[in-house]
Design brief:
The chain has 550 residues and is α+β, with helices and mostly antiparallel strands. The protein is built from 14 helices and 25 strands. Strands 13, 14, 15, 16, 17, 18, 19, 20, 23, 24 and 25 form an 11-stranded mixed β-sheet that branches.
Amino acid sequence: LRGCDASAFAPSWPPAPVRGRACLRAHARVSTRARLLGLWGRRTCCEDAMPAVALPVGVLHLLLFATSLLSVALAARRGSGGARYVLCDDTSEFRPSAPLLTVGGGGGAELRALSASIAAGGRRAGAASRWVASSSTSPELRVALLVDAHRFAMRMAAPTEELFDPALAHKGHAEHTSYEKCRGRGLPNSTLVGCRIVGGSSPGAAFGANATEAWMPGRLARFRNAELWQDFAVCDLEESRLAVVQATTLRLELLVQPDAASGGTVLQLEMCRVTRSLFRASFCSQPLYGLPRLREEAPWVLEDWLAYHLKHLGFQHAELYDVDGSFAEALEPWLRGDGEQDATVSYHRAWPHTLSKHMGDVSARHPYCAEAWAYAHCITKHRALSRWVALLHAPDEYLFIRSNPSRGVLPDVLQGLEETLPDDRNIAYLQVNAVSFGRGGPGAEASQLAERGGVLATSRVRMPRGYFHLPLVDPANCVAAGPHSCYAEAGAAGEDVDVVTMEVRPGILLLYHYVEMLAANRGRCAGLHMPCVVPDSSAEWAVRLLRGGL
């Protein structure tokens, strides 16, 4: 966006003066919605050059209005994705699995599908440095895979391993907690993937005629780094587009063959069509644990966190995971749909135990062992359900819209941000900065932690500057994710890169990270980043909101 106060949005976009028709076009891109939200203040990009536009005011207003409507329509088209499907049931009892007898030359392995979705294909990134526009609108199947076996079980990302930073291995919320991750050994690079549609249903007709006997070739997307080792099977369903468009349910077979010389296995996938429009914004948590202990100090810690983000801010769905099942009772009202809330919640109880026995056992000592697997499940699922997905880790994080704190405004803010994204670059995720808050500050008293809004009320002193912390991902492009980043799929050698990330100006979105929420966390602010010494009561309005029942 040129000619506006773009420097306030991102340092990489300095303002540039424009005149004449170029100015008119730039001015039109600042939609009425964006201006009302206060994203760009009062100054418009053509303020200094308006005399050069020789058009009647009425015509100019008509053009601006039409362009605004067109930008909204195009954004909706980008987010629609055509026909969309998710697994009909992705709970642990019905998670697709099949024997995989020859992984690495051994036996006794089982291949599991953590999550699967069908939506318009995303973009793939390669190793080149040139940026180009490249997109796929073909329906595409993506499946998050897990190999579960004793000899191929999860291994910890330990400090002694070459890729892991020893200084961060045991840096957790408390002495007994670490951020070490369970990394799957996964499938070899030689793995062959194929898929085919074998049945389903469509309105008023049997589906057998639309089944495909031949295997459609697919690919294995592999991610190997310090925080995750994960595999995803991807199939382009363009050859079966008609079946995908017409069906209400689809039955697919996914062939996974570790190498051409060995036997493979076939996963049976039952996919249900998504009939509702995309959620504009959802969030998923890391695996949470120990709610009774949290409530001993902060009785409203979960209720406040969900009420603020789902009832006030404007998230439409939350995908919540826990380690020990301790959140089940507290989430019952949300799962039943009690009350007047429009937002919904999905709950994955004792998440690590549903993946593998080994991961469940390790999670008792390392609660974040299965964190990256939760994100793989959430992002894969929500590429068919949501336009944007925030990795909002835990109840010590609150997302604030500093430009406009009005109720339910988050979808509109994201729409305004979308209108500023460059057309020739595909965004994997938006970087949202955070600032840490510590205990104390003006008017903060420890006793307030037992009241509604207590987490915010007891921490009113912050660090001097922020840091990148929260990924707001586009699940069409982001495939795998760690707590603070996401990874796009790598293409063939020499393929152009067109997937990038962009920073959101803190004046629009900023995460307040209450790192000293509990008494055991005192001093954590200085230990993680820098001392929290700046008085800040900017969240006081949210405290009043929570105490007033929203």
